[in-house]
């Protein structure tokens, strides 16, 4: 199975950090963000990985090379101009012959991709979207009132739940029939599929997931990972 990792964005919301470093290469502890992404794919047994690169791509290529020292095989596709999430994978169409994974090079997650792939295959659908469950419990009870003004239901401190598109996707090759140039999955491709009555499978997960989209997010996460990494490094050194 192959995976396509989208790494071509400029990361404008993380400037000034991304003026000289592509977002997937921003360090977290002792490794760049993208290395965590690749390690998670490898843990799931996916070692044939396509990196769609663009902005400051030489830094990604210089660090990862052919992927051998990271235990994977890497292929690169260069994005000369923004192609959006769906348009970005069109270049790799000729390499895709079977089920494949698409995910972002700047998201961190502990999602179990093996379980997601199994769920996808059981569904028989062309597309599976990873939806991160996120909820906030209300501090008060909530009443449901019918049109006549009568209370029908009362729930004490309910959990207000949302399902967030994590931009982790599993596709069958047929997805390419629904993609046009410079399109986005959420804005264009999935609405087109739903309009044509195609089933889109949902994999709901509670594992850790974060889109490092803002400076405050990155700085907070960077501090946390750095401390953990420093402690582990010191412990391992002391055991030698």
What does this molecule look like?
The chain is of the alpha/beta class and 240 residues long. Helices cover 29% and strands 30% of the residues. It contains six helices and 13 strands. It has helices spanning 33-43, 57-64, 84-87, 113-123, 185-195, 215-238, and strands spanning 2-7, 27-28, 31-32, 48-53, 73-78, 100-104, 107-109, 127-137, 142-145, 151-155, 159-171, 200-205, 209-211. The strands form four sheets. Strands 5-4-1-6-11-8-12 form a seven-stranded mixed beta sheet. A two-stranded antiparallel ribbon has the order 2-3. A two-stranded antiparallel ribbon has the order 7-13. The model is unreliable at 230-240 (pLDDT under 50).
Distance between the first and last residues' Cα: 38 Å
Percent in helix = 25-40%
Number of strands: 13
Radius of gyration: 20 Å
Strand order within the widest beta sheet: 5-4-1-6-11-8-12
């Amino acid at each position: 199975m192959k995976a396509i990792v989208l790494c071509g964005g400029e990361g404008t919301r993380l400037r000034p950090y991304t003026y000289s470093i592509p977002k997937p290469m921003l360090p977290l502890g002792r490794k760049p963000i993208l290395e965590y992404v690749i390690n998670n794919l490898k843990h799931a047994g996916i070692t044939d990985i396509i990196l769609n690169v663009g902005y400051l791509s030489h830094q990604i290529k210089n660090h990862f090379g052919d992927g051998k020292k990271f235990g994977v095989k890497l292929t690169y596709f260069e994005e000369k101009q923004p192609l959006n999430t769906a348009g970005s994978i069109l270049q790799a169409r000729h390499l895709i012959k079977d089920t494949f994974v698409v995910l972002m090079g700047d998201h961190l997650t502990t999602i179990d991709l093996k379980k997601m792939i199994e769920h996808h295959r059981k569904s028989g659908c062309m597309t599976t979207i990873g939806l991160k469950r996120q909820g906030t419990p209300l501090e008060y009870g909530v009443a449901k009132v019918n049109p006549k003004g009568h209370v029908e239901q009362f729930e004490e401190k309910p959990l207000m739940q949302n399902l967030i598109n994590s931009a982790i996707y599993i596709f069958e090759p047929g997805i390419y029939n629904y993609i046009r140039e410079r399109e986005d999955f959420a804005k264009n491709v999935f609405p087109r599929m739903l309009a044509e009555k195609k089933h889109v499978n949902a994999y709901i997960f509670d594992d850790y997931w974060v889109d490092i989209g803002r400076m405050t997010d990155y700085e907070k996460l960077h501090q946390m990972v750095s401390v953990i990494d420093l402690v582990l490094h010191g412990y391992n050194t002391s055991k030698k």
